[in-house]
Recover the amino acids of this structure.
């Protein structure tokens, strides 16, 4: 280790923390975690962490500290490349390779063949609509029955909205995702599991992004349409984390915009994840922002979300 003008003083009674004294006699206590943050995470860093370590502690991006704006940009570029290489999650937008819902419900004995034919005929005549909706309108099925059939089709549980808190769940993700993908975070169980409710199909891309952002395991399931709609309305009426959305021409511009936000806001923690065509940046701006469950915010205070999308060519 290079001589930085610091000498080891003591570790006794400090719960694993080391004390160093500087050349002028001042004493500073440094945790191993804090010391790691002061080691520049950029692979192309030329200056290292030696010179600026005492006066630049932020921003921290995905557990790494950048000693300069240039190094932070390199960290962000690596994250953008990583997220760009992931599948866009289009599998959640189709029933391909799944037994059609009508046949699932027929096989389970929940509908009769005449009922299925009547619903299919009405669907063909209309030229639109989901078969579940036509089974309800033409055959008198209840929403709960259709949801149960969808759960068999998707091999997932049926979830309830019991225990749903709009105030808490509004902090999980930007409301833009709730509105566009028609899903609702329902509750956290045991401070380690987050339940995500969907209406008629699972959304693997959103579930994975929320797992990465929250540090919680996400269990997706289906909720009957009326119950999910009511929960979604309550969530959208609650106060969520402040967010802005922006369309950028390319990935380099996005990396520059993310870096500018990090340098301006100086978060103690930040992360970037991809959600279908979107890139979601979340910033924890001050200590104490994380609650008791994973990395979910305690409140809207000292939190900010940015959502980016690339221009379509």
């Amino acid at each position: 280790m290079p001589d930085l003008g610091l000498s080891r003083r003591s570790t006794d009674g400090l719960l694993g923390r080391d004390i160093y004294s500087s050349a002028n006699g001042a004493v500073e206590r440094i945790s191993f975690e804090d010391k790691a943050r002061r080691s520049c995470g950029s692979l192309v860093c030329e200056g290292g962490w030696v010179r600026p370590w005492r006066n630049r502690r932020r921003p921290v991006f995905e557990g790494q500290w950048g000693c300069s704006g240039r190094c932070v940009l390199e960290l962000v570029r690596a994250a953008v490349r990583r997220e760009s290489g992931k599948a866009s999650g289009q599998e959640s937008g189709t029933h391909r390779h799944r037994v059609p819902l009508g046949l699932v419900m027929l096989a389970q004995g929940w509908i009769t063949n005449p009922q299925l034919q009547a619903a299919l005929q009405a669907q063909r005549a209309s030229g639109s609509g989901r078969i579940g909706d036509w089974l309800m309108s033409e055959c008198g099925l209840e929403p709960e029955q259709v949801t149960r059939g969808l759960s068999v089709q998707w091999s997932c549980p049926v979830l309830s909205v019991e225990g749903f808190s709009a105030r808490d769940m509004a902090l999980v993700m930007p409301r833009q995702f709730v509105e566009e993908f028609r899903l609702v975070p329902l509750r956290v169980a045991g401070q380690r599991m987050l339940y995500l409710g969907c209406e008629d199909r699972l959304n693997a891309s959103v579930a994975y992004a929320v797992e990465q952002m929250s540090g919680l395991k996400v269990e997706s399931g289906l909720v009957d349409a009326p119950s999910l709609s009511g929960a979604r309305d309550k969530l959208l009426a609650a106060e969520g984390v402040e967010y802005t959305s922006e369309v950028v021409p390319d990935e380099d511009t996005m990396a520059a915009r993310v870096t500018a936000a990090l340098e301006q806001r100086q978060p103690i923690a930040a992360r970037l994840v991809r959600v279908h065509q979107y890139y979601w940046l979340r910033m924890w701006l001050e200590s104490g922002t994380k609650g008791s469950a994973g990395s979910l915010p305690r409140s809207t205070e000292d939190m900010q979300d940015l959502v980016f999308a690339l221009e379509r060519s």
The longest helix spans residues 69-84. The two ends are 51 Å apart (CA to CA). The chain has four domains: 1-30, 33-85+241-313, 92-154, 156-240. The chain is about 35% helix and 20% strand.
